Amino acid sequence: MKGVSTDSVEGENVTLEDLKQKMAEFAKERNWDQFHSPRNLLLALVGEVGELSEIFQWKGEVPKGLPDWKDEEKEHLGEELSDVLLYLVRLSDICGVDLGKAALRKVELNAIKYPVKQCKGSSRKYNHLIKNNSSESS
């Protein structure tokens, strides 16, 4: 968000709650709540994911840490990642979903879907993993 002060969070850990409050204030100050329906926010999020995808388009696989990327490219990546995060946080707020709790629950569910013994080192989807007990269902 260009023009938004980050002084209050500089050097601190930023929480989803911090972002949620900042985004709510940002929208309220501009009278944008009227436009922030779940549908509109979702479509904006999809658009931002598209912009994020364009950064990687045609680059092939890139190594972790992006060692060959210029500082400007990494900065642009950070901006697009931030746009995706901010729209996601705003969408979850408007929908009344506690994103942090939902994410932690999803990690727990994924741990059940992807038991270490069956999936370690494998990229197979959970429904293609060999189960020890054939009566297990997902």
Task: Kindly describe this structure.
- This protein is mostly helical and 138 residues long.
- The protein folds into two domains: 16-97, MazG-like (Helix Hairpins, Orthogonal Bundle), CATH 1.10.287; 99-138, no CATH class.
- Helices cover 56% and strands 0% of the residues.
- The N and C termini lie far apart (40 Å).
- 7% of the residues are buried.
- Pfam families: MazG-like.
- Its main location: cytoplasm.
- Keywords: Cytoplasm, Hydrolase, Magnesium, Metal-binding.
Provide the fold topology:
Blueprint: H1 16-29, H2 38-56, H3 71-95, H4 99-113, H5 116-119
Helix pairs in contact: 1-3, 2-3
Task: Describe, in short, the structure shown.
This protein is mostly helical. It contains five helices and no strands.
List keywords for this structure.
138 residues; magnesium; globular; magnesium ion binding; disordered C terminus; mainly alpha; Helix Hairpins; 5 helices; cytoplasm; dCTP diphosphatase activity
Report strand %: under 5%
Oligomer: single chain
Counting structural domains, the number is 2
Radius of gyration: 19 Å
- The amount of helix comes to 55-70%
The count of strands amounts to 0
Principal-axis shape equals globular
Q: What's the CATH superfamily of the largest domain, by name?
A: MazG-like
CATH class of the largest domain: Mainly Alpha
Average pLDDT level: 89
Write the CATH fold name of the largest domain.
Helix Hairpins
Major sheet attributes: none
Output the structural class.
mainly alpha
| SSE arrangement, N to C | HHHHH
Sequence stretches where pLDDT stays below 50 over 5 or more residues: 133-138
